[in-house]
């Protein structure tokens, strides 16, 4: 039996058209995002940051799905407990998971971010969580048992009863990396690694699909070394100063 990604599987349900007769699938692979009010910093010592993340809980999400907190299979994940950036398996992990546990109806992961010396991009991501500029994580999972929801208030919803954790990732959802980075730089966080990543994406001419050229251009324009960043907040004078700077950049 085939394995489907969750978005395409849901479309099959809606249209009631499946690519082959018989049982629909024995496995669904999906991703779910958890939004955090504030990341819990466990400790920071010698440049090593350790944080606790709520990876998943049993609440109804925006797709009207639920994931059973007691249905997690963590055995295989613990053999290679990587924490990725935006589900990118081809890139080095930004952290490693020290512990995963189910507590009070939540799947919680304790992540240790890499040091600046090992991987400056991963270090920067950790600092952005610590300082509140990133507030979401996304988990990739393989569902092995589920049922369809019959509640009319949850159209096309699925209750996942048993699932295997494949990985979890740091992410910028809701997606606006440029705004997040410019605020972080204004707050004094070293975002040099993000600028270098944007430069690499531009030099590779689209060879980095997770960082589209348009986004890379925006990030580079915001973070290049010769540019001063102003965090506007609600101050009208600062807004005027920012607009003057934008106008000057457009004239160059």
Fill in the keyword field for this structure.
single chain; 252 residues; alpha/beta; eleven-stranded mixed beta sheet; 6 helices
Shape: globular
Helix content percent band: 25-40%
Low-confidence parts lasting 5 or more residues at pLDDT below 50?
228-239
Strand-and-helix sequence, N→C?
Answer: EHEEEEEEEEHEEHHHH
* Rg calculated over all Cα atoms: 21 Å
Biggest sheet features: 11 strands, mixed
Percentage of β-strand residues? 25-35%
Protein structure class: alpha/beta
Q: Average pLDDT, to the nearest integer? A: 79
Helical stretch tally: 6
Oligomer: single chain
Please give the structural blueprint.
Blueprint: E1 3-5, H1 6-15, E2 27-35, E3 40-45, E4 48-57, E5 66-67, E6 72-73, E7 82-85, E8 95-103, E9 106-113, H2 120-130, E10 136-148, E11 158-170, H3 177-186, H4 192-203, H5 213-223, H6 236-251
Describe the structure.
- The protein has 252 residues and is α/β, with parallel strands linked by helices.
- The chain is 28% helix and 31% strand.
- It contains 6 helices and 11 strands.
- Strands 1, 2, 3, 4, 5, 6, 7, 8, 9, 10 and 11 form an 11-stranded mixed sheet that branches.
- α3 packs parallel to α5.
- The radius of gyration is 21 Å and the shape is globular.
- The chain starts with a strand and ends with a helix.
- The relative contact order is 0.14.
């Amino acid at each position: 039996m085939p394995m489907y990604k969750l978005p395409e599987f849901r479309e099959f349900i809606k249209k009631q058209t499946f690519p082959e007769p018989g049982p629909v699938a024995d496995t669904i692979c999906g991703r779910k995002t958890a939004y955090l009010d504030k990341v819990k910093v466990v400790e920071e010592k010698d440049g090593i940051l350790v944080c606790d993340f709520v990876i998943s809980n049993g609440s109804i999400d925006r797709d009207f799905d639920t994931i059973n907190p007691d249905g997690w299979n963590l055995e295989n994940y613990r053999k290679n407990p990587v924490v990725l950036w935006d589900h990118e398996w081809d890139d080095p992990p930004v952290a490693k998971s020290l512990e995963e546990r189910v507590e009070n109806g939540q799947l919680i992961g304790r992540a240790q971010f890499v040091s600046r010396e090992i991987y400056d991009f991963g270090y920067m991501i950790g600092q952005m969580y610590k300082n509140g500029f990133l507030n979401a994580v996304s988990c990739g999972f393989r569902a092995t048992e589920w049922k369809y929801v019959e509640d009319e208030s949850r159209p096309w919803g699925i209750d996942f009863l048993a699932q295997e954790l494949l990985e979890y990732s740091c992410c910028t959802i809701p997606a606006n990396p440029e705004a997040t980075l410019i605020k972080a730089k204004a707050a004094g966080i070293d975002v040099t690694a993000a600028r270098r990543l944007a430069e690499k994406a531009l030099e590779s001419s689209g060879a980095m699909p997770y960082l589209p050229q348009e986004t890379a251009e925006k990030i580079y324009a915001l973070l290049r070394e010769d540019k001063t960043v102003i965090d506007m907040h609600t101050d009208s004078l600062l807004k005027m100063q920012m607009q003057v700077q934008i106008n000057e950049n457009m004239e160059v």
